[in-house]
Amino acid sequence: MTTLPRRTIEAIGVTGIVTTVIYVLYWQNQQATSATISLSNCSFHDVNPALSQDSMNISSVSPDPQFTIYRGTDGHLGNILFQYASLVGIATYNKRNGAFVIRNDFLSLFPHSVDPFLGCSFTVPQSTNVTKKLMSNLKKVHEYKVGRYGRDVMINLPEKDILIVGHFQSYKYFDHERREIKRRLTLNSEIITKSKSLFNNLTRGIDKSATTFIGVHIRRGDMATKFQEHNGWRLPDQRYFTEAIAYYRAKYGNIHLIVASNGVEWCKENLNLGNASFSVGNRREVDLALISGCEHVIITVGTFSWWIGYLSDGDVIYYKDFIKNNSRVDRSFSTVDFFPPHWIPIADKDL
After folding, report:
1. Of 197 and 131, which is predicted with more confidence?
2. Which pLDDT score, from 0 to 100, does residue 95 have?
3. By CB distance 3.0 to 4.6 Å, which of 9, 82, 334, 340 could disulfide with 77?
4. Residue 224 has what pLDDT?
5. C-alpha count within 13 angstroms, C-beta hemisphere, residue 196
6. pLDDT tens, position by position, 34-77
7. Nearest partner of 259 among 211, 202, 316, judged by Cα
8. Structural domains in the chain plus CATH codes
């Protein structure tokens, strides 16, 4: 069993905290040393009190003028993690400083999110004083399409204050710093301790030395509605899980599933998962640490499920045909840009 890691707060269900996120790329004068982030004619004065003076002191990191990236969208945690990771990836690739302005407890969940890296400084100020004036004063850079990588955002950024806007749901924005992203998204010690305790409770009586534990995330909730089906989202059925379980059993022998879902009762009534334990009634950040901390994982649909795979240290099996051909989602999304190439796809034709 690998060390149980990290977690956040997105949607194992649809009832997640809706947050406002704002990124901005800003010009940082090399003489700026105060704990106030200045963007053109606007400033953030109510910086998150958890931030240290050092994390705000850009000039102590590098003598050269740099930029800072912010960005703005709403979303559940899986979406927010893509935004933050893309901020780090784009900032470090372009040797800019990063600021992730968000209206939730992101920093308390991910205490390493403000660590400096490769000469770049990162901050997570609260967004309570962010105004429309701030947004209007910044050059906006938009992503190409949702779920599709846009190379221009990586290499053709203007040398001025910039607001990057979009979802940035492609690993290609940040996978060049994969190890650093995973370190920065290590959850706080309280969450990790709770996930370890939960794991021990769920696996009591199982010979851990002779068992490989497979984490499984099954998205239901809003994804199981006619509305999302009309948009083009597809959910896997029993055949997908049968194939994925068979793969792991053939490779590792004795396995036991640790399952998290926002439709536990549906799973128990409609799926035959074999030897399985279910996480019930736990905070989503605990579930994230629990499932991604298993030796290998099976994921389904959605960005929260995706991040369980990315934060895992083992094999990742994913459902390849989660988008209906020629649907609204299909016209934007690129599975090649969304799923890392070393993950293991299972398509409908394989079932």
Report:
1. 197
2. 86
3. 9
4. 60
5. 13
6. 233 333 333 332 233 332 323 333 233 333 435 566 655 556 88
7. 202
8. 19-184 (no CATH), 189-350 (3.40.50)
pLDDT confidence tier of residue 136, bands split at 50, 70 and 90: low
Contact 48, 109 (CB under 8 A): no
Question: DSSP 3-state assignment of 148?
Answer: strand
Antiparallel, parallel or unpaired: β 66-75 and 19-23: antiparallel
Residue 140 corresponds to which tokens in the numbers above?
A: 């906006």
What pLDDT sits at residue 67? 57
Q: How far apart are CA 170 and CA 340, in angstroms?
A: 9
β-sheet bridge partners, residue 101: 22
Give, in degrees to the nearest 5, the angle at Cα 110 between 163 and 40.
25
Task: Say what the pTM is.
Answer: 0.81
Q: Tell me the β-bridge partners of 218.
A: 261
| Contact of 37 with 99, CB cutoff 8 Å | yes
Half-sphere exposure (Cβ direction) of 278: Cα atoms closer than 13 Å: 16
Asked if 307 and 8 count as a contact pair (C-beta separation under 8 A), the reply is yes
Structure tokens at 64: 């050269």
**Long-range CB contact pairs, 266-269, < 8 A, 24+:** 266/220, 266/224, 267/218, 267/220
Strand spans (E) along the chain: 19-23, 27-28, 37-39, 42-44, 66-75, 97-102, 122-123, 139-142, 162-165, 212-218, 255-261, 276-278, 296-298, 316-319, 344-346
DSSP state of 336: H
- CB-based contacts of 36: which residues, under 8 Å, 6+ apart? 43, 44, 45, 47
Handedness of CA 27, 31, 33, 38 (dihedral sign): negative
Dmax (CA) of the chain: 63
- Average pLDDT on 11-28 reads 36
